[in-house]
Design a protein that fits this description.
- Helix content is 32%, strand content 17%.
- By secondary structure, it is α/β, with parallel strands linked by helices.
- The protein has a six-stranded mixed sheet with strand order 3-2-4-1-5-6.
Amino acid sequence: MMQPTSLWLIRHALVDENARAILYGTMDVELCPTTLLEQAPMYRALAERLPRPATWVVTPLSRTRRTAEAIFAAGYPAQALVVEPGLIEQHLGDWQGLVHADLPARLVQPKHPFWPLAGTERPPGGETFVEMILRVGPAIEALAARHTGENVVAVSHGGAIRAAVAHCLRIGADNALHLSIHNLSLTRLERHTDGWRVVCVNELPGY
């Protein structure tokens, strides 16, 4: 029986306090230096928990690369990092950089309870969450096809991880946005011959 391809999806570390005050989407913002130090036990737990060997994937944004490097510094053997643009966060277009309080007046639809906007809301110059699922789905399918039967660790973003789970479970955007994906949490997906299996969502290292 063929081994499944295992995707180990990690949401990047907490971003800087100033970035958290705005809608940053695909902006390249810094990680929070204080939290990087305080959460050292979580990095060590991830370094021990993640599979070896594995192919490591990050997005074009530095916060995913820096998170991977912090896991390496905590004890996981350093790896080459493959950049996968398809796993980047939702592009919020002209709304990127807005203070959160300024967003509601610009929305066409009521906001989602657990996301700044509804799944079908399109920011000017950006993408809907529905479109994000249609982008992330082929990206994880391609990763699984390139690494059949292997382990792939991907440091990505909260929105992209929700979109990946939505693709695997074939659920709608607004349903997927109810998923909680914490910083440094682990979500595991397996690609079997007959389809995807969700092994765990939002597992927190060290807990």
